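== Protein entry: sequence and backbone fold ==
=== Local backbone shapes as whole numbers ===
==== Amino acids and backbone structure tokens ====
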Amino acid sequence: MPSALTRALLAGALAAAAAVTFLPGVAAAAPTATVAANGPLNLRSGPSTADSRTGSVADGAKVTAVCQAFGQEIAGTQRKTPYWDRLSNGHYVSDGYLKWSPARPTLPWCSSKGATVSKVSSGGGKVNVRAGASTGTAILGTLANGSGLAIECQVWGQKVTGHARTTNAWNKLTNGRYVSDALVSYSKGLPNLPWCGQTPPTVPPAGAAAFVSRVAKPAQLGFQKYKVPASVTIAQAILESGWARSYLTRRDHNYFGIKCFGSPGTIALGCRSYATQECENGKCYDTTATFRAYKDATASFADHGYFLTVHDRYDKAFKYSNNPNQFAKEIHKAGYATSPSYANDLIKIMKSYDLYRFDPKSRAARS
């Protein structure tokens, strides 16, 4: 028997509820666009310029788009956009260089297996469409089982156990209404949907100086609010994100590998599963875990500072907010990382790149 929460989501349609316009999850036929790049347009293996170049397509050529991905924002000849289109040949191009006539159609999202069409999956009944991401918000209409959905982005909301899965994720449709992802099926697996309001994915900085320039301000803001030395924060970000090369950092702006443990907390936008490696008793193994997804780097750095302040095992470290080296040693002793060289690794990075210059008492910090 479905739960009370699921029954609340399934329609017992109210007479006053307005009908929802059917939103196709995919165009009837794969749409064609014209390349408008003022020269050859590079093909990529993924939705960013950091992904390998796989060839090119001539300016003025016709291309067929099969699905879209949320990727690096590109200012093209036609528009500035974070959307990339996967072509019928399996390669990606920025939608910023494609000319559509009369307008860009609704494309399904890409999954690792290709174009994945999203549909209502209720098990038979109709599904309520809401004004927000919970059953406490107004019912704005209903959708029949099997109806196609045009999804814009996701939000973290009320946890729902539905026909497809149990999840806190809700899909915001292109008409501004919401359906729980617990009641949505995907023909070729879950796509990497953007979180609503999320900054587009980034590409790795060109070098160490570019990385430090990117994160120095968020780290200094973290010191102002939470008293975590900026030099320590930057060093941790370097270690945890691999100089912002990790997919977790590029895609969801998570610079510190902070996991969800059931909740994104008060700062992150939501949670996403990633392949990772865990180590216990000297043995490491591959697994999957859910990590926090952020609006941008600033939010990630703020959550890092907040994380340290709300866990009392790190209290001693804050006696050394103006002594970064000792601060690093104290959070290590308190269990921040299992590597026996973690504190020394942080101090080595701080010294090598003179990260102390971002601390308010830079001279004392070097001692």
Notes: The chain has a mean pLDDT of 91. The CA atoms of residues 201 and 251 lie 5 Å apart. The longest helix spans residues 208-226.
